[in-house]
UniProtKB/TrEMBL annotation:
PANTHER family: GLYCOSYLTRANSFERASE (PTHR48047), OS04G0273600 PROTEIN (PTHR48047:SF61). This is Glycosyltransferase. InterPro entries: UDP_glucos_trans, UDP_glycos_trans_CS. GO terms for molecular function: UDP-glucosyltransferase activity. Its EC number is 2.4.1.-. PROSITE patterns: UDPGT. The keyword tRNA processing does not apply. Keywords: Glycosyltransferase, Membrane, Transferase, Transmembrane, Transmembrane helix. The keyword Transmembrane applies. The chain crosses the membrane at residues 7-29.
Length: 498
């Protein structure tokens, strides 16, 4: 008899930054385990995903009904990509209305499988409510965090305590009451939504409902590595009293990345040729991720720093804050006079989208000036590239703190979208990391240690499994054991005629 495959239901929040790590996890599970996967999302996102799945994938894409116009959002806004930042919170709030439809959808799956439940539901950090739906249906539930544990621990702690509101107005530093290990924070290390939060604003109200729901989950999967992210992992073990499974890094392969990325400003081949022409460890790569940009004056100062540093660089440029991010980049308007001419031999400006992993994996790349979104961080560390941190939003400020203070693989350059930036300071920081300074050497030594930790965590040999492979085993064992327990209970109830 052919044994039926266990089914896993996966449900990310409707934003590329969430859908992509979930897709990476789904493909990773598909390749390494014999499970079938149902990937749930709203119709427009499912439509887009159809083009992103490799042709031989057996992942089932399943629509959950959603109409943005019912939630005071512009029509067809089913993804943060399609929304200005100010409306993201509206989409988050609207997503809580999916609860009854999600419960029905999972019940339908159970019904179609003649009462057999999915092995587990893996759902988003913004969908805390799915944990109680899973409980009601007797299904194992895990949250999957595309962020690292330290960054998310700070995020969880700040939202649940708003500690910056409890300090005197002339003090600017605070500690997290339930995460003292993370030492001091400065108010400038908070993203705008947190800084402005007073407990009654929309973000606070949303998080006050969402985060406490996590305790109903059976555990949290993290896209991180156990050995370097202990502090954050311990925080969640303590806070939620549940297992945490550091299974990372789970990233899309180059082939699959090409399908989900945006239209590129240059081809990977052109980029490679350009990098091939540069000496080993000589290029600084600069990018602020998939959705962020800096302000006009910051852009000017960064350009001046690149001009005066004399270093080779690749810079992914987007129109500054206040201009349509998808419009044409105007070097005449936003960069110093004759900038492109002056740097033409050693600088490459890429509009919109660069082949980031190809760049980070090239031997000519020496350092990465990044907003420190967690995917970018993992992609840098896995290739042993040290970071210059310039956080923009969300938990990125905490990632920079973690990378600088705990791992020693990063130097902070600037903070946020409004801070004043001086080109002299940027040059100093670039030199600190890229030059043969004591600090530069130390950072490179540490980043190679971290690279090795990541490689060890990913070893997948029968007799010698790395921590991330073991964590994935533990996660599935926990799900299987709960399912067996549920089946036993059901059988006993049936026997007793309950
Ligand atoms: N990325 C890319 N080219 C770009 C900008 C971003 O390939 O020009 C990819 C990058 O490799 C990473 C993702 O987009 O996988 C960005 O994710 P991250 O978590 O770093 O930041 P976010 O975009 O979510 O702020």
């Amino acid at each position: 008899m052919v044994q039926k495959k266990e089914n896993i239901v996966m449900f990310p929040f409707m934003a590329q930054g969430h859908i992509i790590p979930f897709l990476a996890l789904a493909l990773h599970i598909e390749q390494t385990r014999n499970y079938s996967i149902t990937f749930v999302n709203t119709p427009l996102n499912i439509n887009k995903l159809k083009q992103s799945l490799p042709p031989n994938s057996s992942i089932t894409l399943l629509e959950i009904a959603f109409d943005s116009s019912d939630h005071d959002l512009p029509p067809n806004s089913e993804n943060c990509d399609a929304l200005p930042y100010s409306l993201v919170i509206k989409l988050l709030k609207a997503s809580t209305s999916l609860r009854p439809a999600f419960k029905e959808l999972v019940s339908d799956i159970i019904c179609k499988c003649h009462g057999e439940r999915p092995l587990c539901i893996i759902s988003d950090i913004f969908f805390g409510w799915t944990a109680s739906v899973a409980r009601e249906l007797g299904v194992f539930h895990a949250i999957f965090s595309g962020s690292g544990a330290y960054g998310l621990a700070c995020y969880y702690s700040v939202w649940t305590h708003l500690p910056h509101n409890k300090i005197d107005s002339d003090h600017h530093e605070f500690v997290l009451p339930d995460f003292e290990e993370a030492s001091k924070f400065h108010v400038t290390q908070l993203p705008l939504s947190m800084l402005e939060a007073d407990g009654t604003d929309s973000w606070s109200v949303f998080q006050c409902q969402n985060l406490p729901e996590w305790v109903n989950s059976n555990g949290v999967l993290f896209n991180t590595v156990e050995v370097f992210d202990q502090l954050g992992l311990m925080y969640f073990k303590r806070k939620l009293v549940c297992p945490v499974w550091p299974v990372g890094p789970v990233l899309l392969s180059l082939k699959n990345r090409a399908k989900v990325g945006k239209e590129g400003g240059v081809s990977p081949e052109f980029c490679k040729e350009w990098l091939d022409s540069k000496p080993v460890n000589s290029v600084l790569y600069i990018s602020f991720g998939s959705m962020n940009t800096i302000n006009k004056s910051q852009m000017m100062q960064l350009a001046m720093a690149l001009e005066s540093s004399g270093r080779n660089f690749i810079w992914v440029v987007r129109p500054p804050i206040g201009f349509d991010i998808n419009s044409e980049f105007s070097a005449n308007e936003w960069l110093p006079d004759r900038f492109e001419e002056k740097i033409s031999n050693r600088g490459l400006l890429i509009q919109k989208w660069a082949p980031q992993v190809e760049i980070l994996s090239h031997k000519a790349t020496s350092a990465f000036l990044s907003h420190c979104g967690w995917n970018s961080v993992l992609e840098a560390l896995i290739h042993g590239v040290p970071l210059l941190g310039w956080a923009m939003a969300a938990e990125q400020f905490f990632n920079v703190k973690f990378l600088e203070e705990e791992l020693g693989v990063c130097v902070e350059v600037a903070r946020g979208k409004t801070c004043e930036v001086r080109h002299e300071t940027v040059v100093e920081k670039i030199e600190l990391v890229m030059n043969e300074t004591e600090k530069g050497k130390e950072i490179r030594r540490k980043v190679f240690e971290v690279k090795e930790m990541i490689e060890n965590a990913m070893i997948d040999e029968e007799e010698n499994k790395g921590s991330s492979v073991k964590a994935m085993d533990d996660f599935f064992n926990a799900a299987i054991s709960m399912k067996e327990k549920m089946i036993k209970i059901k059988r006993e109830e049936d026997n007793n005629g309950i």
